[in-house]
Amino acid sequence: MISKILWKSLLVTPALLGTALAVSTPAISAETAAPESEALSAEVLAVESEASVVEVAELEPVVEPIAEVEAPVELSQVPVEQPAPAAAPANTTTSVDSLEQIMEYSNEGNVNSINQVTSISQLSDVQPTDWAFQALQSLVERYGVIAGYPDGTYRGNRAMTRYEFAAGLNAALDRVNELIAAGLAEAVTREDLATLQRLQEEFAAELATLRGRVDALEARTAELEANQFSTTTKLRGETIFAVAGVIDEDEAFDDQITFGYRARLNFDTSFTGQDRLRTRFQVRNIQDFDSDPVGFSFSGDSEGDFELDDLAYTFPLGERVEIAIAANGYDVDDFVASTISPLDSSGQGSISDFGFPRQYAFNAGGGAGAGAIIQLTDNLSLDGGYVATDAANPDAGAGLFNGPYSAIGQLTWLSDAFDAAVTYVHSYSPEFGADNAAANTYGGQVNFRLIPGIEIGGGIAYTDIAGVPGDAESWSYQGTLAFPDLGGEGNLLGILAGVPTYTAVPGTDIETSFLVEGFYRYRLTDNISITPGVIWIEDPFGDDSDSTIIGALRTTFTF
Questions:
Q1: Residue 225: partners with Cβ closer than 8 Å, 6 or more residues away
Q2: Spatial distance between the Cα atoms of 226 and 248, rounded to a whole number of angstroms
Q3: Is 438 within 8 Å of 432 (Cβ atoms)?
C-alpha cells in the first residue's frame, strides 16, 4: 500500500521527492541515518498525499496562475517564498558530521560526484522497471538536478538524513527560481510550487541551519581570497630543531652535545591543476659527529644563509606518464616513484642517513637533469632519470654531459599488500679515484604490510667500481621494521639494522660496521612531532674501533 501511495505521489509531484533523492542521496550515511529516514519517509508521504488532492480552486488564493506572470520574478514574489532563516528548535541537535557530509557533497568538483546528468540512461543502476523511474526521468528532462557517482551509478536505495533531504529541497528551490528568472515559469506546475511550500515550512529549521553554514563558508572564502598569498602558489614549510649527543664512543674523539636547526620553505605552483613547479629555499646548521661515519638524515651547514635547494617542474604527459625537469638540487632517486622504505624521510622518518636507500648507492650528487615515471599498469611503473652535478658550468669536463653525473632506472611495484623495487644506478665522478672511474650499482628493496600497524622490509645494494686499481666492490644491506600509528594516529615506531656501505678491494682485508637505530615519532598536533632516537654503530670505521652510541631528539614543525 505504501509503495502505491509513493508511486502516485511521485507522478503528481516529481520536483519534490525526486529532487531530494537526486541531490541528497549521493551523500548518504546508511548506518547513522536509517532511523531518521524512516520517520522522514512517513512525513514526506503525509505531505505529498495532502498536496496531491488539493483542488486547483483551493490553490488560487495561494498561488497566482504562472501564465499570468508578466515578467521574470524571484520565487520570493509568489507564495512559495523561502522563509527567513530561523533558529533550530531548542530540542534539536545539529549533527556536525551530517553538515560536513552535505558541504563535501555540495562542493563543486567533489571527487565523489559527477556533473549533472543530461539523460536518465547515464545512470547505469536506474532501470525502467524501477518504481521511481518516471520521477527521475522527469527531473532530468524538466529540472536538470540529477547527479550521480563517477562510476555512472545513482545508488538510489540508500537512506538519507533530514539535513540531506533539506539540501535537496534547497537545490530544488534554487532551480525553480532560475526557471522563473529565465522566463520559463510554465515549466513549474502549481502543484510543484504548493508542495515545495509545504516542505520548506516543514524543513525550515534545517534549511536555516544549512543557509547559515553556507553563509559562513562564503564569508570565510571571501576573506581567504582577499588575503591569499597567490592564486597559483601554495607555501609549505618545515622546520627541524635537533639536539644530539654521543653517549659512548672511542676515546680518540671528543664530540659534544649539539643543538642545530633546518628550515625549508616550499613554494608549490600549479598552472593547470595537474602540474607543479617547486621552488625550495633552505637554511640549516646541523653537523655530524666525528665518530659517526653515516651521519644524520637532515644534516648540513649553509652558514646561516638561505639557499636554493630544489627547483623542479613536473607535469603529466598523457594519462600514464609524468615528466620531471630539475634545474637544481635533485638527487637521482628523486626521479623514481618511490624509494620503498617507510623510514625514508629526513623530517619524519629515520634519524640516521642509513634510512635513505641512496646512502648505500654511489652517485655523483645532486644537480640538474630530467626524468620520467611511466605507469605500465595500476601497480607497476618504469622510472628513470639523469642528473648532472655541474650542469651550468661551460668549462671542459663539465656541463650537462661531460661532467660528473648519475643515471637511474627502476622498476617499481606499489600495492596495498607490499611495495618492491629493482634499481640500477650508473655514476661517474672524479671523486671515485680516477678520471675514467664509473660505478654501477644494482639494488633491490621490498616492504611488506603484514597486518594493519606492522610493516617489515629491507634492501641490498652491490656496486662495481670500474677504472680504479683492483676494481673495487661495495656492498650494503639493511632490514626495516615499522609500526605506523602506534599509540595514536600519525605516530611511528621505526627500527632498522644492517651494514652501511663498505668498499672491498681484492687482496685486502676489511672489517664491516653494523648499525642499529630505533626511533619513535610522536605527533603532538597535526603540525608538531617529536622524535627521540638512539643509534648504535659497531666498529664505525671498520678498523676495530670502539662502538659509538648516539642519542638524538628531533622536533619537526610543519605548516
A1: none
A2: 56
A3: yes
3-state secondary structure of 183: coil
**Residue 313: CB partners within 8 Å, gap ≥ 6?**
275, 276, 277, 278, 324, 325
Grid cell locating 204:
525550515
What angle (nearest 5°) sits at the alpha carbon of residue 177, between those of residues 176 and 179? 65
C-alpha cell at 133: 523511474
Asked whether the beta carbons of 511 and 540 are under 8 A apart, the reply is no
**CA-CA distances (angstroms) from residue 513 to 161, 246, 474, 536, 539?**
63, 17, 13, 10, 5
387: nearest Cα among 429, 324, 330, 471: 330
| CA separation for the pair 501, 291 (Å, rounded) | 16
Any idea how long the chain is? 559
Q: pLDDT for 108-129, tens place per residue?
A: 334 444 456 778 878 888 888 8
367-375/514-523 β-pairing: unpaired
Say if pTM beats, i.e. exceeds, 0.70.
Answer: no
Angle formed at CA 509 by CA 507 and CA 513, multiple of 5 degrees: 140
Q: How far apart are CA 195 and CA 200, in angstroms?
A: 9
Cα separation, 136 vs 127, in Å, equals 10
Distance, in Å, from the CA atom of 508 to the CA atom of 154, rounded to the nearest integer, reads 72
> Which residues face 498 on adjacent strands?
478, 515
Give the side-chain half-sphere CA count within 13 A for 216: 8
- Please report how the helices 190-202 and 162-181 are oriented relative to each other, as an axis angle in degrees rounded to 10: 140
Are the CB atoms for 373 and 321 separated by under 8 Å?
yes
Q: Which tens digit of pLDDT belongs to each residue from 486-520? A: 999 999 999 999 998 887 766 666 778 999 999 99
Grid coordinates representing 151 are 562510476
